[in-house]
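Support case: user asked for a sample of complex input and structure output to validate their parser. Sending the pair below.
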Amino acid sequence: MIIYLAADHAGFALKDKIKAMLTKQGQEVIDVTPVFKDADDYPPVAQALAKQLLRRGTRDEQRGTRGLLLCGSGVGVCIAANRHKGIRAAVGHTVEEIKLAREHNDINALCLSGRSRLNEKELLKIIDAFLKTKKSSAVRHARRVKQLG
Amino acid sequence: MIIYLAADHAGFALKDKIKAMLTKQGQEVIDVTPVFKDADDYPPVAQALAKQLLRRGTRDEQRGTRGLLLCGSGVGVCIAANRHKGIRAAVGHTVEEIKLAREHNDINALCLSGRSRLNEKELLKIIDAFLKTKKSSAVRHARRVKQLG
């Protein structure tokens, strides 16, 4: 799986931390916003990641892709990402919530708060649930995800 | 302020509870989904509420409007609502989060989990923060909200 990462100024430090942790795990990580910009805006950051996730390339399609988005609270990038059809983004607070969001809503973007009170271990568990939980095969969930566009 | 409410089957019971609590407070509440439907889908529910919030009527514009959306986790309706330009929706977990989302992201829709572990008092505090917190007057926040479309 290829994991795209993007963050505004408020999520930048945590994004770099997560990048290091995922790289250490052997994950393939592509940083969409590798250069720190002071007081940049979250909507174009989320848009840049959405474009990568929606890009249909043989390599991405074969491997599967996921996105990790960070801003101050996670809410701004989440609204911006969900403006794009094909992106299903949720802010991660707990493992249970993200497991359900993968199963029921087939989310492909996880939004995190750069000012989160969660510690490194908790964050990694949430990211792990996001990357490893399979979407439900129930017809009703697939129908609803399709309705989202 | 006019508060629009909508819920799928999984959020229906809590929606009715919130409706009663808000009505008791003297709030004007309009229930977009007043009839319980077994296993209805969250995307059209969120869409119906978004349409009400985006409707430009003299009465709504003068008074101001907000939306409350409920499904099993809050995530499904949140993705669906954010598909609509002009809607800025967030899932409410804590008062602090929703205060910030009002100040920074000017959210106009609050999404709640019908299976929430929050008690009535905690939920009311989150709803209260959603209804009463003013958006920030900072130029940078207004610029970003405008970028969301």
